[in-house]
Design a protein that fits this description.
With 306 residues, this protein is α/β, with parallel strands linked by helices. Strands 3, 4, 5, 6, 9, 10 and 11 form a 7-stranded mixed beta sheet that branches. A two-stranded antiparallel sheet has the order 1-2. Strand 7, helix 7 and strand 8 form a beta-alpha-beta unit. The chain has 10 helices and 11 strands. Helix 5 crosses helix 10.
């Protein structure tokens, strides 16, 4: 009959018993119950098909086989511990799979800058990206199907730790034919009260942020016109259907695709949004996500300085 292989748990239990020569003391050292320790040792004896200890009324004695197994177990467990330490030392942050959720009003503008930098800094990272609206990616995060999300803060639910990445102003985009009064310090928010503001469809956090700005100054949203993306929204403005608010990072991409536009920066304090990184507060990967946030911040500096 072939000899079975011991488990690591069995070897640890037996090695503690060999050291203390007392079941209660060995169990206490391993923070386990005495019956559980006794069961592990008995299972090891059954696996090896030999007696390892003599149980007396006062103490435990090792058999000759037990002495030999104890010496071997000590070396085996030491090697296992060393292997774990070496893997942790060389593994570094952001190695292996990482599932990222990104909202649509961030993904097209941030990812082209961030992904090459991540590939260069963390070559062992296996990244997958899921683009969806805020409610969906937060639900996926809390369900464990995503590891981290990039979205506008604050996160609308509890249980998510937030790391701020950057703030960006909204810019008023109008048809070039519109007469918007600019001052040296920028256009007043109150200018919106005379304009039809085009919005994204419901579910986009950018829609809610734009509505908040409109409500502050009593501006009206164009009730019949909505878009599913910033690209469509800017094209509608180019066609003369109204005006819209566009985040700074999206301007280079979206305004390049549409003619007949004028850009107006708001007077200070300008309306803005805060973009951040969110992860489950219970996740053990907080240090990795901090490294990810640092890389994203560095990448956004490139966008904002060019």
């Amino acid at each position: 009959m072939a000899v079975g292989r011991p488990t690591v748990a069995q070897l640890r239990a037996f090695l503690a018993l060999a050291e203390h020569l007392h079941f209660r003391d060995a169990a206490a050292a391993l923070r386990m119950s005495q019956p559980a320790l006794s069961g592990s040792v008995a299972a090891l004896e059954e696996t090896l098909d030999t007696r390892l200890v003599e149980r007396t009324t006062r103490k435990v004695l090792l058999t000759p086989a037990g002495e030999r197994v104890a010496r071997r177990a000590e070396r085996v467990l030491a090697e296992l511990d060393r292997m774990v330490e070496e893997v942790h030392a060389v593994r570094g942050p952001l190695v292996g799979p990482l599932r990222v959720g990104v909202i649509p009003t961030v993904a097209p503008y941030l990812l082209p800058i961030v992904l090459p930098r991540l590939a260069a800094e963390f070559p062992e990272l296996e990244l997958s990206v899921h683009e969806e609206q805020t409610d969906q990616i937060v639900a996926e995060l809390l369900a464990g199907r995503l590891d981290v999300v990039l979205l506008a803060l604050p996160v609308p639910v509890s249980g998510v730790t937030e790391l701020v990445l950057y703030d960006e102003d909204f810019v008023l985009v109008t048809p070039s034919s519109y007469d918007v009064e600019d001052t040296p310090g920028g256009v007043s928010r109150e200018a919106l009260s005379d304009l039809d503001v085009l919005l994204l469809n419901e579910g986009h956090c950018l829609r809610d942020q734009a509505l908040d700005v409109c409500r502050e100054v009593g501006a009206r949203a164009a009730a019949a016109t909505y878009a599913t993306s910033l690209a469509t929204l800017v094209q509608l403005v180019s066609g003369g259907l109204g005006v819209t608010l566009v985040p700074e990072t999206a301007l280079p991409v979206e305004t390049r695709r549409a003619p007949n536009l004028s850009l107006h920066r708001f007077a200070s304090p300008a309306p803005f949004r805060r973009i951040g990184l969110g992860f489950r507060s219970t996740s053990p990967r907080a240090d990795e996500f901090a490294a990810l946030a640092a890389t994203v911040r560095a990448a956004t500096e490139e966008i904002r300085t060019h």
